[in-house]
Amino acid sequence: MKLMGRDIPARELLARIEERLRTRGLPTSEQVDVPEQGVEPRVDPLSFNLRALEENSDATRGLPLHTHRGGTGQLVLVAKWAFRKTCQVLINEALGRQRVFNGHVRDSYAQLSAEVIRLRAEVETLRAAQAAAPSQETPPAPSRARNTAKQGKASKE
Known about the structure:
two-stranded antiparallel sheet
């Protein structure tokens, strides 16, 4: 592997990265157990996105408070919590229209998803009917090409 014109051995690089992760207490690329049931089933994107829109449609509901910092991070969390508790009425008022808009988006997405599902089913039935129906049209018989003036002279000679 080359990086900026220098040869860098990939195995050595990975070993150094894993060592740094281990010193910080983070997991490395060790073997992971595969679940017994195998790969998870395919998720329908239409229903997945609709569920995500439903879960996040209320803009007035705050996200969970968390921090990766120590000490001062806890103070920031307390300040955020206090702000939310004291100003929730103002937050609800400011984001009320956004909540209504998000509801309309969710409903529109649900209608469009239902229409896509209906159209897919219709296309499948049309394809099945087309495959089941015997070919009604017979291909046209090949016609003889007309001779051009040059071809006519060449054939006469």
